[in-house]
Design goal:
The protein is an alpha+beta fold. The chain has one domain (10-100). 23% of the residues lie in helices and 26% in strands. The chain has three helices and four strands. It has helices spanning 25-38, 89-92, 95-100, and strands at 13-20, 42-48, 57-65, 83-86. A hairpin with an 8-residue loop joins strand 2 and strand 3. It starts with 12 loop residues before the first strand and ends in a 6-residue tail after the last helix.
Protein backbone atom coordinates (compact mmCIF):
# COMPACT_ATOMS: atom_id res chain seq x y z
CA UNK A 1 0.00 0.00 0.00
CA UNK A 2 1.15 3.49 -0.77
CA UNK A 3 1.63 6.11 1.98
CA UNK A 4 -1.29 8.05 0.49
CA UNK A 5 -3.58 5.09 1.17
CA UNK A 6 -3.11 5.51 4.92
CA UNK A 7 -2.26 9.18 5.49
CA UNK A 8 -1.61 8.59 9.19
CA UNK A 9 1.14 6.09 8.47
CA UNK A 10 1.26 3.37 11.11
CA UNK A 11 -1.98 4.52 12.68
CA UNK A 12 -3.96 3.47 9.61
CA UNK A 13 -7.52 4.50 8.95
CA UNK A 14 -10.12 4.94 11.69
CA UNK A 15 -13.92 5.08 11.61
CA UNK A 16 -16.82 5.32 14.01
CA UNK A 17 -20.16 3.94 12.88
CA UNK A 18 -23.07 4.84 15.11
CA UNK A 19 -26.81 4.36 15.34
CA UNK A 20 -29.48 2.72 17.44
CA UNK A 21 -30.20 -0.96 17.89
CA UNK A 22 -31.38 -2.47 14.63
CA UNK A 23 -29.83 0.03 12.19
CA UNK A 24 -27.09 -2.36 11.04
CA UNK A 25 -24.15 -0.63 12.73
CA UNK A 26 -22.46 -3.90 13.74
CA UNK A 27 -23.08 -5.36 10.28
CA UNK A 28 -21.49 -2.36 8.56
CA UNK A 29 -18.42 -2.75 10.77
CA UNK A 30 -18.23 -6.46 9.99
CA UNK A 31 -18.45 -5.82 6.23
CA UNK A 32 -15.65 -3.22 6.40
CA UNK A 33 -13.54 -5.61 8.46
CA UNK A 34 -14.06 -8.49 6.04
CA UNK A 35 -13.22 -6.27 3.07
CA UNK A 36 -9.96 -5.25 4.77
CA UNK A 37 -9.18 -8.89 5.54
CA UNK A 38 -9.82 -9.94 1.94
CA UNK A 39 -7.40 -7.22 0.78
CA UNK A 40 -4.72 -8.54 3.15
CA UNK A 41 -4.84 -5.58 5.51
CA UNK A 42 -4.95 -5.50 9.28
CA UNK A 43 -8.30 -4.70 10.88
CA UNK A 44 -9.63 -4.31 14.39
CA UNK A 45 -13.17 -3.61 15.54
CA UNK A 46 -14.90 -2.88 18.82
CA UNK A 47 -18.70 -3.08 19.04
CA UNK A 48 -20.29 -1.10 21.85
CA UNK A 49 -23.91 -2.18 21.94
CA UNK A 50 -24.82 -1.37 25.55
CA UNK A 51 -28.57 -0.83 25.76
CA UNK A 52 -29.16 -1.48 22.06
CA UNK A 53 -31.87 -4.05 22.77
CA UNK A 54 -33.81 -1.27 24.48
CA UNK A 55 -33.43 1.18 21.59
CA UNK A 56 -30.15 2.59 22.89
CA UNK A 57 -27.04 3.78 21.11
CA UNK A 58 -24.70 1.44 19.25
CA UNK A 59 -21.12 2.33 18.28
CA UNK A 60 -18.59 0.38 16.25
CA UNK A 61 -15.00 1.56 16.15
CA UNK A 62 -13.08 0.25 13.13
CA UNK A 63 -9.37 0.60 12.50
CA UNK A 64 -7.73 -0.60 9.26
CA UNK A 65 -4.00 -0.53 8.57
CA UNK A 66 -1.48 -2.07 6.19
CA UNK A 67 -0.70 -4.89 8.64
CA UNK A 68 -2.18 -6.10 11.94
CA UNK A 69 1.04 -5.00 13.68
CA UNK A 70 0.31 -1.40 12.68
CA UNK A 71 -2.83 -1.35 14.84
CA UNK A 72 -2.02 -0.45 18.44
CA UNK A 73 -5.42 0.72 19.66
CA UNK A 74 -8.79 0.08 18.11
CA UNK A 75 -10.91 2.63 19.92
CA UNK A 76 -10.99 5.90 17.98
CA UNK A 77 -9.99 8.69 20.32
CA UNK A 78 -10.76 12.41 20.19
CA UNK A 79 -9.80 14.06 16.93
CA UNK A 80 -8.69 10.82 15.25
CA UNK A 81 -11.65 9.71 13.08
CA UNK A 82 -11.21 9.59 9.33
CA UNK A 83 -14.89 8.69 8.95
CA UNK A 84 -18.00 9.04 11.07
CA UNK A 85 -20.85 7.11 9.51
CA UNK A 86 -24.02 8.13 11.30
CA UNK A 87 -27.03 5.86 11.02
CA UNK A 88 -28.97 7.98 13.52
CA UNK A 89 -28.77 11.77 13.74
CA UNK A 90 -29.26 11.95 17.51
CA UNK A 91 -26.49 9.44 18.23
CA UNK A 92 -24.17 11.12 15.70
CA UNK A 93 -24.64 14.41 17.53
CA UNK A 94 -23.44 12.98 20.85
CA UNK A 95 -20.42 14.69 22.40
CA UNK A 96 -18.15 11.64 22.22
CA UNK A 97 -18.87 11.14 18.51
CA UNK A 98 -18.39 14.80 17.64
CA UNK A 99 -15.17 14.88 19.69
CA UNK A 100 -13.70 12.15 17.44
CA UNK A 101 -14.07 14.32 14.32
CA UNK A 102 -10.77 15.67 13.01
CA UNK A 103 -11.46 19.23 11.84
CA UNK A 104 -10.84 19.71 8.15
CA UNK A 105 -10.43 15.97 7.53
CA UNK A 106 -13.30 13.79 8.74
Amino acid sequence: PSPAEFPLGGQGWAAIIDGVGGTGVVTIGAVLGMAAHLEGKGCGMIDMAGLAQKGGSVFTHVRIASTPEDIHAIRVSAGKADLVLGCDLVVSGAKKVLAAVREGHT
